[in-house]
Design a protein that fits this description.
GNAT_dom, 202 residues, Glycosyl_Hydrolase_84, alpha+beta, 7 strands, seven-stranded mixed sheet, Acyl_CoA_acyltransferase, GNAT family N-acetyltransferase, single chain
Length: 202
């Protein structure tokens, strides 16, 4: 795998935004393709991607393969402020578009609709040391060759320049390869009541 071009995401380009939503879906099953798991192909991106492109465009970076985005990293400098802003500026329109019980109760789509109406709130205990957070997703074309590391280090540099002392991320406990990758970069497991959250001092 060769080193791929890296740049800021073109967050105002509808074609690129659509491509990033596609990447989100195609990596949405602990890194594997989740296309067959959801009835609405944009819903996963609306929950885990769109707000970052809209509200934190300066912290959105992509790697390109064959002239199109093949992976991205997204970040928020101040998680608490970002969560408050999404409550004002991102979730209300989605709640109108996706009322509760839009999808069957036991479906993955409805689980995402539940998140839209009751968004996750980051545990306050970790925000002093790790106020920033990130999401990273890479298609197979961008995996290997150090591309994931370069994407993350680009974001880390941007967060340091913005004065952040630390960054955290959530990861599925069954995504063993991702956990190993993050721990190799220096992330450590944080003590939170539920889920697996990793943190890195910047």
């Amino acid at each position: 795998m060769s080193t791929l071009p890296l740049r800021h995401a073109r967050t105002t380009d509808p074609a690129e935004v659509d491509r990033l939503y596609e990447i989100c879906l195609r990596t949405g099953a602990s890194g594997a393709d989740a296309t067959a798991l959801y009835a609405d192909p944009r819903l996963l991106g609306e929950v885990y991607l769109g707000a970052y492109l809209a509200l934190e465009p300066g912290l959105a970076f992509v790697v390109e393969a064959d002239g199109v985005a093949a992976g991205y990293v997204l970040g928020a400098r101040d998680t608490a402020a970002f969560e408050a802003r999404t409550e004002r500026e991102w979730w209300p329109a989605l709640r109108e578009r996706y009322p509760l019980e839009t999808f069957p109760a036991d479906s993955r789509d409805e689980a995402l609709v539940q998140q839209i109406h009751r968004p996750h709130r980051t545990h306050a205990a970790i925000l002093d040391a790790y106020p920033s957070h990130l999401h990273v997703d890479l298609l197979p074309a961008a995996q290997g060759g150090g591309n994931g590391r370069r994407l993350l280090e680009t974001l880390f540099d941007a967060l340091r320049a913005a004065g952040s002392p630390g960054v955290h991320l959530g990861v599925a406990e069954d995504n063993v390869s991702a956990i190993g990758f993050y721990e190799h970069l220096g992330f450590t497991r944080l003590d939170v009541p539920e889920g697996l959250v990793l943190g890195l001092r910047l």
